[in-house]
Amino acid sequence: MFFKRSITAIRNFPRNYCSKSTLSEDEIQKFSKMANEWWDINGPFNGLHSLNQLRVPFVRKGISSYQKSAVKNATPASLLAGCSILDVGCGGGILSESLGRLGATVTAIDPSEENVAAASLHAQKLMLNNVTYEVNSVENFKNLNPTTHFDAITASEVIEHVENPEFFIQTCTDLLKPGGSLFITTINRTAASWALAIGAAEYVLTVVPKGTHDWNKFVTPDELNFFITKNNCQLRQLHGMAYNPFTNKWHWSKCTSVNYALHATKSVHN
Description:
Elements: E1 2-5, H1 25-32, H2 46-66, E2 84-88, H3 94-101, E3 105-110, H4 113-124, E4 131-135, H5 138-144, E5 150-156, H6 165-174, E6 176-187, H7 191-204, H8 221-230, E7 233-244, E8 249-253, E9 259-266
Parallel strand pairs: 1-4, 2-3, 2-5, 3-4, 5-6
Antiparallel strand pairs: 6-9, 7-8, 7-9
Helix pairs in contact: 2-3, 6-8
């Protein structure tokens, strides 16, 4: 494992480096200020630690079900061995580390230097040589690595914090191998999501810092499905997720009105 600074530091590359951008400076600064709290299991990210109970098996089972060739070297101890994964918006590396411990070769990127530094520092203790962290946006990463493609891409609790979500999905799918998997977890844009994910979580129970989410940036399952279909991908799974803040536990739900997880695969044909 190592912390790789992008060839052109993410905050210093010209704003016109890419014709479009997914970056929001407000979002980067918001999470950079909390970078030293990523691995405090009783802190503001404890819900994300708990979310691994759902999202790690979701990724593992999705890959093993639809991409058996990507894990042909897998063993009971390393279920994702041989699989290359790009974790976009990795934050402090909560998901990246878990996927790395399953044997995947993980490239984890985040536009916040503070987040990547925190992720790298924590992972050093585990000696995860198959996890690489890099300060970068997904579009800049693509431009710097035009021939690099991955078996799977994860973007967990990320798309609701970016600018231009359609371009974000386009860029992610461009980085997938034919047949590769895209895994998204995010929040629906409904009255229920405002009441629970913002009203209750941020202002009543304060299990999430106030101002973490902007309801207007939430993406509905129909919108997300439109984006992936437009980019030559097929929906494979769509599941609702429900969170109990009193027990800090997640479970699958038939209801997608608040949190949901999506798995899509890229067509093997152009």
